[in-house]
Amino acid sequence: MDVKGLAAIVTGGGSGMGATTARALAKAGAKVAVLDINEEGVKRVAEEIGGLGFRCDVTSAEQAEAVMAEAREKHGPARVLVNCAGVAPAKRIVGRNGPMPLEDFRKAVEINLVGSFNMLRLAAAEMLGAEPVNEDGERGLIVNTASIAAGEGQLGQVAYAASKAGVVGMMLPAAREFAKSGVRVMTIAPGLFATPMLLNMPEEVQENLANQVPFPKRFGKEEEFSSLVMHILANPMLNADNIRLDGGMRMQ
């Protein structure tokens, strides 16, 4: 799908892979709306790419609906949604202070899974009601961000792994539902990427983690995530699948 002149929504777009994806979409000519809970970051990225910036809690139906309505009024119906908003908490089920607070688990699921579904449902409604953009009858693309932890969660990743497994799980039924209308649904499952969380770790920890990647022996780059999003856009045969972006890594 050629995104030139089409409306795109990127959640978690105030930093990291979301910001890089917003830049890539804008460079390709898309009219981009950037959403993030971080108001300062979202304004900075929106100004940089000449797009719209909204502070938005993706777990809130009211906030998401209001933001999507404003973006639609200014850019037209969404044709691309890339869900990058998420959190990566680390906590054991039973730690030194007793059981994990239920609220910690609920928060990860709310942001990573419910937040992704919240935006998916709203963007899909706009796509399904819009006219096709090419001879294939394509109306839109939704890309959700999961993680290799969805199937290989590590110690202390129970909330994160469960939420990302849910993201992978909702892809196929969504893709099946929307296929007749020309809307594709894909999931990207990154491995170890150079996010602020990883880069704030001690250098020796970073080196140990990077050495676990078969090739290349380093963390993934944000641009490698955004380039995959752009390839998915360009290749209409990519649908209803989860693509691992991990340098061949399999978590122990």
TrEMBL record:
Pfam families: adh_short (PF00106). InterPro entries: NAD(P)-bd_dom_sf, Sc_DH/Rdtase_CS, SDR_fam. This is SDR family NAD(P)-dependent oxidoreductase. The keyword Oxidoreductase applies. Belongs to the short-chain dehydrogenases/reductases (SDR) family. Keywords: Oxidoreductase.
